[in-house]
Structures are given as C-alpha cells and as structure tokens.
C-alpha cells in the first residue's frame, strides 16, 4: 500500500486518529471515519477521532469487515498504520459474534467455535452466575430468563454475543400504512425509511429484531417505527420522552395507518389506557411511590408502572429517543429480550456514558445515514450554524471570577449582554418562524418580559402547549420562547431559525435535538439558521465547543462571529451564498 504525505489523516498507536480539516480530502475521510470511529475533539485545524471497542462492534454489526475498515484508514493515511492498530482492529471486529446465543429444544445455549474462549468464559466471574452447566467444549447451558444480563456481561467481558435465539411473535394486530393520509394527501415511505425498517426486521430472521436506527430529527424516525409495526403485525408498546411526543405518535398513527382510535392507548399521568398499541413516557414508567427508593424492592414494586410490560403480549417495544432511556428502564429491558426492541434516535451519544447498555440490551446500531447525505437529497433543510461570542461586562467578569465553580456556567450563560445581540438577530430575520431556546427559566422569563412572545416551559399544561405549537404551525405565532422541553419530539415544520441563548452544559445530544427542530425542508429551498450565543472566554464557550462536536460529526460548518461583527452580518438565504462579513469558518 502506498501512503501519501498529502493525505489528511494520521493513525496513532493509541488508536487515536488525527484528521486535518484544511485538506481537499477532508470530507471524504471524515465520512469514512464516521462509520467506525468516535469523534472526541474538533478544534479549528485538526480533529481527533478514537477507535474504541464499541465503535468497532457497531461497525461489525452493520456488516463492516476489518478489511474494509483498514482499507479506509490506509486510503487516507499520511503514514503506514501502526502494527498494533491493525491487530487490534482485526481482533475487536472478530470478537463480535464469536459467541452466539441459540435455542436448542428447550435449552438456552451459549456456543462458540473457540474452545479456549468457552473455557475462559465458564470461569469468568461476570458470566459464571448464569451458567447452568457445560454441555461440551463448545457449549454452555445458560439461564434463559437472564438473557439480557448475560449479553450485558459478555459486552463487559469484551465478547459481544450475536443473539440468535429469536423472539416471540406477540399478539397479532392487523396494521397497514395508508396510501393516502386522513387528510387525503398521498403518503409513501422514503427509500431510506423503508431500508431502515427492512434492516431492523430482517424478514423475521433471528439476527434481526433488536437494534437502533439513527436518523436526524425531521427525517421521519416515527415513519420507520410505523413501517416496522406493519411488517410485524403485532401488539406494540411505544415509550417516548414526554406527553407531547405521545400525542404526536397518536396523531401520526391515526393519520398514516389503518389503526383506529380504540386500538391506540395513552398511558401517561392523565390516562391509563392499555390497548393493542399503547404509548407511554419514560417519566411515567419510572414513577416511584414515595419511600420506595433504595429499599431493595422488586422492580415491579419499586416502579409500579413497569407492570405495563406484562399487561399485553407485546411483540415489539419501540424506544423513541433511546439515548434518553433512564437507568431503571435498562433494568427492566434486560428482562424483555424475548420481545423485539427498536431504538430510534438522532445520536448514539449518551451523557451518562451508557452506550454499551444500549448496545447490549436494546441492540447494536442497525442503520445510520449521514445528515449531510439527507440534506443533499432534499429530505432535511440546509442549515447555517453560527456561534456568536459576547464579552462579559466588567461587573459580570468580576462576578464570574469569584463565583463558586458550580455557579460559573450559569453566571456566564445568563450574560445580560446577550440581549443586545438577540435584538440584532431578531431584526435580521423579520419574516422567519423563529425559536428562542434556553436552559434557565429566569433567563427565559426575561426574554418573555422584553419581547412578549408566547413561552412554553415544563410548567405549561399539555393542552396549552399543543395550542401554542399549532398556532406556530399555522403561522398565527411567528416567534416562540421555549425551554429544554423543546429539545425532544416536537414537530414544528416551518421553524427556520433557532437562537440558543443557553444550553445544557456540554451536551452533544442536546445540540443534536435542538438543531433537529429546524431541519424540516423549507419552501423554495431556503436556508435554516442555528445561532448559539456564548459568553467569551468562559465555561459557556467551553461547553459550546463540546456541544459542537455533534455538528462536526455530521459534516456541518459553523461560523464564529464576535458581538461587534453582528451589525454588519447578513444571513445567507440560499445554499451557497456567503454573508457580507468574512468570519472565522470552522469546517465540520
């Protein structure tokens, strides 16, 4: 293999990969790396990726071979690949599926062609509690009721199992996608939505039926869920992040499938309907009776609504926004391995670091489409991303300097000088449907007091939220203030501008969700704009840099402006236009 010093990447012995941004092959190399490496840092000129066991196992589960991964690295590498990296990639990829879970007669078995590996596993302290007997040198009889716990243990040991036991079918339910919506508009799945559902279900084969579909907000993850339901024709339980999302699932199911109102149940704080298709929230499912926390009770007693998992013969459980799955739901999911499990998300990043739990208990990544690919095809909007850095006033600088470490971010995030820039941005988008989003309610209340726009927070009743969202969709409301409740599962197709005045520390998953609010394609191909206002040289700026890792992963460019440059800044309206100011451009 010939290497070229003009290539954009350097692969290092610690399995980190450096990618030069200012290189003609940057985008091609980034798209290759995104399939099997995790982005860790994305400053202006050199981005750092990491090859991890989980990133390689996800790649292997989607069909990538070690040879394909090595070929991608070699194609764009300046220098020869370190020998240990070659060996480690081949080793980690080969570990996925080296152990298999199968059913033979009434026995649940763990099997492998690797005899020494079986000898090692039967003695391993993480797996030994679940082993009933060693059948032969290739096979262990294990406790079938602990299937999820066994898979979790095997991931932690370093040999993720391929689960070929299969699933129960669940109670039958006739469900079909409509050719015309209830409003008499033509409806059909997009190619990638159908592909995602097909890959997940795999025609009912044992190697399908559990895993995660990664698609941008606005790309129709709900449609993928409905397509899977149509393929399986069974009772389905859907878990979603909030009550607004529950209502949107209900609306979509009634609009685009043959299901009727009496077949769809809402199981939330207000209603407890259990029907062939039942939709609940993570908050409802994790409700605890007062005084039951940390008392060592069985899960059903500690979390009384977990009984919903046993109320019907579910054939499919859909985890909407699976990256938000609470720890207690992971615990019950370990017991639900006989049910097909579909995770839907815009990002596999979890702020609690439990990506391995998603992998082992929900399933590996089954399908992923780069956001920029869907943008090029016109399925999601083209977005200009701009960070505006704003100084603290002398008084605020002193307040920030002496603040307790835990308070520094809030002091910086609530910088009053952000309002001057907010005024300027509002003037530059007089005709756009615009969202102002933030983390701190006091700050949002000040925005409400200054501009008198409608506001939605966690305290806003669901009926009032739905009313305001509908007014925004209908154009009766042009500008809307929204708290972090707007991060997830709201459908505002005409929103074209978002101004983020404070975020949830360094949360990459939040950045993904917030960007997703403005990704619906715009009329006449107009651009969408995502602005982040940060206080310069503070933790606000540091956290923003971490959140922007997500933008870089997805191929977005983001511009950095300083407050004094905003007056002369003219937002582009069509893809390919350039603003009047020539700002610092960071290629993502």
Q: How are the SSEs placed, and which strands pair?
A:
Elements: E1 9-11, E2 16-20, H1 26-33, E3 38-41, E4 46-50, H2 53-61, H3 66-76, H4 83-95, E5 100-104, E6 107-111, H5 115-123, E7 131-136, E8 139-142, H6 147-157, E9 162-163, H7 191-201, E10 210-214, H8 221-232, E11 236-240, H9 243-256, E12 264-267, E13 277-281, H10 282-285, H11 299-302, H12 308-311, E14 316-320, H13 327-333, E15 340-345, H14 355-362, E16 365-368, H15 371-376, E17 383-390, H16 394-402, H17 405-413, H18 418-428, E18 434-437, H19 441-451, E19 455-456, H20 462-474, E20 479-482, E21 497-500, H21 508-516, E22 528-535, H22 539-553, E23 558-562, E24 584-586
Helix pairs in contact: 2-4, 3-4, 6-14, 7-8, 16-17, 21-22
